[in-house]
Amino acid sequence: MGCSVIFHFSIGADDPKRTATMLAELWRGQAFPFPMVGKGSWVAFAGDDRGSTMEVYPRDLAFYPSDGQGEQRSEPVSRHGPFHAAVATPLSIEEVEEIGRRYGCHTSLCHRGAFRVIEYWVDNALMLEMLTPEMQQEYLRAATIEGWRAMLANMWKMTPEGEPIEDAA
Fold it and tell me: Which residue among 58, 60, 75, 109 is the one 20 to 30 A from 10 at the CA level?
């Protein structure tokens, strides 16, 4: 099996410096300016052995394909969308919730079937599913092909094809 790690991803935020600082705190990492993309961009470093980072751009920055490097444009965007990410943190539930309170971000402890997450709402617009060390273990047990099949069958009474499982009674 090959390596399957996401090294970084980028998000838009109302205040990139503040958001990158907050994300770095959730990782016990550090935030720095990210001048190579967009004016006012920042990056949060986890400080782990994989070089995990989250780049944080001004919310109105958009990328478009072009010859060579993608073109950058400033345009109005929705504050909400389907993108979210599950992110490991070394912190406890209480520590994550405290950082959320200090930064004005809504947090909520949620069950996703076979694992738990803390919904952490950056700018109360973008959801990150923060996973404490205990939650990471729950996730890793569930996020396998066999684990997912079992969860679908046992919790959702559904086949891997999305069809309902009929009771044998």
Answer: 109
Pairing of strands 126-131, 107-111: unpaired
- Label residue 4 exposed, middle or buried (CB < 10 Å: 0-12, 13-18, 19+): exposed
Query: Cβ distance 150 to 157 under 8 Å?
Result: no
Contacts of 101 (CB under 8 A, 6+ apart): 107
Q: Quick one: CA dihedral 94, 49, 10, 84, positive or negative?
A: negative
Across residues 123-151, what is the average pLDDT?
92
Residue 47, sorted as left (phi over 0), alpha (psi -120 to 50) or beta, turns out to be left
Which carries the bigger pLDDT value, residue 148 or residue 94? Answer: 94
pLDDT digits (tens, 9 = 90+) for 25-63: 999 999 999 988 878 999 999 999 888 999 999 999 988
The two tokens of residue 139 are 């996730």
Please list the residues that pair with 63 across neighbouring strands.
Answer: 72
